[in-house]
Amino acid sequence: MVSTSTRVALVTGGSGGIGRAVVERLVVDRFAVAVHYAGNKARADELVEQVTDSGGHALAVGGDVADETAMKAVFDATERAFGGLDVVVNTAGIMILAPIVDLNLDELDRMHRTNIRGTFVVSQLAARTVRKGGAIINFSTSVTRTKFPNYGAYAASKAAVEAMTLTLARELRGRDITVNAVAPGPTATPLFLDGKDDSTIAGLAAAVPLERMGRPEDIGETVAFLAGPARWVNGQVLFVNGGLAWRNGTSAGGRTGHRAKPRL
Questions:
Q1: Which pTM value belongs to this model?
Q2: Residue 151 among the catalytic residues
């Protein structure tokens, strides 16, 4: 059982990519963390073992983020294990790349079910559960501004996340709970790099004034800021992309066609 003074976080999509970096960074700040997974329990269990072996507190919890019953069970399990919940970080999402003219509408529905409905379900449960002084952190994308080809449906789903996030921040007036969204730019996770040739990756790095791709730990640092000291940052979308310019003519699409993968 964790101390009553320990802050508790739930990270959806926490078993890999950016989600894993978020978990690892929050553990540095002595959070007890519930590591959520959708399908890969083994990877979540491995991360939990890593955290507990280093003296931290972690729990693996599974469920479809768009299923309100499954996610209610996730929230309940987190509260039972750690005595409460202070921060919810919703990194879970999927990305399907295709030109708008070609995208299969069933794939559109599948992506929007996870990215829009899933964010709504998690945000709704978080708003009902998070303790005073807590934080709700959703995930958008810098592609809502860069307008890269092949990302139209994905960017639309994340624009909905931004709208939900900013509205919820205002609806929680008086609760002392901050609600923000993190919008990463191109970040060097294996699944983001999949399907992109060397020239595409080099072009993305060159487009950033810091002249490199983002790293998962860059995003983890921003989440830790919002989860901890950033009590005066509320109702905002933080673009974490190294200064990536909103300009036309830059492509991040890699191969075209119907490609579905987890975002993280």
A1: 0.91
A2: no
CATH number at residue 137: 3.40.50.720
Q: Does 1 map to a domain?
A: no
Per the structure, the complete domain to which residue 129 belongs is given by 8-262
Into how many domains does the chain fold?
Answer: 1
In angstroms, rounded to a whole number, what is the distance separating the alpha carbons of residues 138 and 91?
7
In this model, does residue 189 exceed pLDDT 70?
yes
Give, in degrees to the nearest 5, the angle at Cα 263 between 59 and 244. Answer: 120
Is the pLDDT assigned to residue 247 strictly greater than 50?
yes
Residue 2 lies in a domain: no
Q: Check the CA dihedral 79-81-87-93 and report its sign.
A: negative
Q: Which of 139, 154, 192, 239 is catalytic?
A: 154
Work out the number of other CB atoms within 10 angstroms of the CB of residue 133. 13
Q: Are 119 and 164 in contact (CB under 8 A)?
A: yes
Whether residue 47 lies inside any domain: the answer is yes
- Summarised one tens digit per residue, pLDDT across range 105-139 is 999 999 999 999 999 999 999 999 999 999 999 99
